[in-house]
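ok so i was messing around last nite and threw this chain in just to see what happens. nothing serious, just curious
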Amino acid sequence: MGLTGTSLAIDAGNSKTDVALVGADGSVLGTARGGGFQPPLVGAARAVDVLAPLVDAALAQAGLGGAGPVDRLSAFLANADLSAEETVLTEEITGRGWARSVGIRNDTFALLRAGLPDSGEPVGVAVVCGAGINCAGVGHDGATARFPSIGRISGDWGGGSFLADEALWHAARAEDGRGEATELARAVPAHFGLSTMLELIEALHLHAIPERRRHELAPLLFAVADSGDPVARAVVARQAEEIALMATVALRRLDLLTEPTPVVLGGSVLAARHPLLHDRVLRLLSEHAPKAVPHVVTAPPVLGAALDTLDRRAADEAAYARLRGVWDQGPSGAGPRDVS
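result:
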């Protein structure tokens, strides 16, 4: 068996990367998972180096190692936020010779594609709130709406890492008297087996507690908010406002506010469906974008990348159904479950 008719689907996020080898009939022939994709930290070439063993593993799983290039590679990449970054990454990946045709987009578009039907014009908006936050939309005739989503310098607020830092900030200020009293001042250090924020600040600063453990504080923030703590609840409310605002602005820029339009919600923070966050997002969307049809997608975003490979070859309905079945997403042509 050769590689004719096969495609590589790649979803490379900040914390993990998924690669799938997809057949023309929608079958998944091989998969591989690896670490995060962070070209801003290591450069484009070294970031793409992370993809190489995953591509090899997916091909080897299918018994196709060394068989030559696949027909198509669709890669949806974190940190491909600017057109200049997309250009550099496209050149780097094309140069590896993995595929005859290469397409690169920001990874938010993978979530959007996973949440849209497999037939008809692909119109909708996606907001991802996981480690970070981003939004992208596609309107009629292929118009797009995007945000740089580079961090505070591009006006961003939120995401799991940001929320963890907010929990630390409020807890520290509550303990030393600069801020409002909050249960976070007790709960945050207690999560790490410590008694005070001062102890935790020292442990984090001197790396006695690994930096990677800070992400554990986002779920803790939601737990404290659920207990009724006003400071934690205010942070969660602000996160909901940012999610709804990004979606509404994207819909406005695409002239989609006056027609029913899917708003796909995903990423670890949104996929958890915390009632305080989820319900507020839905309420704000109903107020500011009443035609929006929100959906939560929990399938891995590599599904969107894999669907994109079928789009490029005008696959039949059975191929889409087969592919979605791998990730238990239901029949072809059916949109994701409405959770509003």
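not much to say yet. The longest helix spans residues 230-253.
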